[in-house]
Amino acid sequence: MSTPLVPHHVSSETGARARGRALGEACRDGIHETFAGYASLFAAHGLHPHHVRDHGRAALAEIGGWAPYLAEEIAGIAEGSGLSAWKIGALNARTEILAAAAVTGEGECSTSVVLPGDGTPPRTVQTWDWHDVLRDAMLAWTLEPSPGRRVATFTEYGVVGKIGVNDAGLGVHFNVLRHRSDSADIGVPVHVVARRVLDEATTVEDAVRLARSARLSASTVLTVVTHDDARCLELSPAGVAEVHPEDGFLTHANHFLDPELAKGERTTADVSSTFERGTWLRERAAALGAGDVTERAHALCSHREDGAPVCAHAEQTLPPHQRWESLATISIDVADRRLHVHRGGPCRVSEGAWLTCSAGLTVVR
């Protein structure tokens, strides 16, 4: 049985509110189901619905101040889907809401970037690990956020962006982090930061500038890649740090690498495999630099019994809010401005089941 492709929505609207409204209408069921999934996740972590409502409204205010056009797009998504605006705000702030509840966990993503250094484009790959009950939340989206700027992003229904590439040849990978400075004083959602970087940045320095301009309440690392540069931007309320490649190789799991920010690390080895995965990744530059995207994805195929659960599988005996799985495997081609998305973890990757989205707003199977 073939692996189904991740759903893909293509926007032709150039106005933010109209684009959001059209997405909301087209993806209404997926957005409703995704919000219901997150509502259950928030409740399992002790968040009352009125807390979620207040956090969603706070997020909308922060987005409106930092990226007004994305606030308009979110308002359009709410109108099109028939959900209250605060619920779409909560979806976009799901990282911030979970940080407000001091949630930690076993899983999350592993990212690798290899810079060959001989004019060959960077070779990137990551897993997207999340709760298995939210596997149907995945969405690929291509859009034109402003005249002349095209973006392809892998995200979740109702969330404005996450991992992706733009037509300037700048790509963004995404991993969550947890820092002691994370708080319930909801700031600009990190997913909104990732989307604005895709919308506006043409260089890594542009991405750094944008990231530093946002007031944050939760932590994340954006691995920003161009044809000849790559950097991990570790975002936290305590500050933004830059991690540079070593010998043309850059990897990140879910703990801080910057020495100063690492002093506030909230993730510990007893609850997360991030330190094992980080070590495992750093030892595999050659395999992770493979030219073929499927071969590169297979290089991430390591399970817990292999020493590091880079390819994660949900333990079904655990309650849903404690289960983690590699739901997608993703690679970015900044030279051809293409985003490759495969449903499932590295051990499930097959040659013919990649969805390839172009920042030129076309799909290549």
Automatic annotation (TrEMBL):
InterPro entries per record: C45_proenzyme-like, Peptidase_C45, Peptidase_C45_hydrolase
Residue ranges annotated for the Peptidase C45 hydrolase domain, each copy included: 124-272
Organism domain of life: Bacteria
A Pfam family matched in the record: AAT
Gene3D superfamilies: 1.10.10.2120, Penicillin V Acylase, Chain A
Record protein name field: Peptidase C45
Organism annotation: Prauserella flavalba
Origin organism lineage: Bacteria, Bacillati, Actinomycetota, Actinomycetes, Pseudonocardiales
